[in-house]
Amino acid sequence: MNPHHSDVRPLALTAGAPSVAVKQRTLSAIDGVRQLPPGSPAPAPAAAKRTGRVLRRRAGRHVPAACLAAAVALTGLAAWQHERSEQSARRARQAYERLEAVSGLLAAPDARTAHARAANGALITVVASGLRNVAVLTVAGLPAPAPGKTYQLWMDVDGTMRPAGLINGDGTVPLHGGPATATAVGLTVEPAGGSPRPTTDPLLLMALPV
Length: 210
Prior knowledge:
alpha+beta; four-stranded antiparallel sheet; 34% helix; elongated; disordered N terminus
């Protein structure tokens, strides 16, 4: 992926200080005893007593097993709820950190934006600050990737494309690596989980707005 390749150019690329609309859009874009049948004679008293003793003995044998099964089920439920709680807390913490990073970036005095349209029609906005060495990317209208595929972001550092993160839908993500050493941002389709280097032609290759 070469940012100067004549066949891969961003469409409608513009750059400038982030507007209020861009700031708002970027911030917002930041889971058994059966009964007797009718008419059946009632059991004799002696038989009833024997039946009662047998049932109590049988029930007594099953009570410990039932209690154990209930305890195991409750323990599993508690563990599942704890795991879900930790996952929710971790996601909330990550979302807050992203929001803080984006808010700080948009407030940077040298923050600049660039807009481009990818080959698949998605609108891409990049906000970058050289002073903070931070850049984020917002995408809108990104088609869902094919099964087993993902969209991968790249940073061009001295002509080498380095992984900068994954994105599979509309939203805002920070770019791994900063604009201090990178000159361009790329977008490709890669196998799920990402690749160490691009394996397909870029859908987008745009200069960083710094």
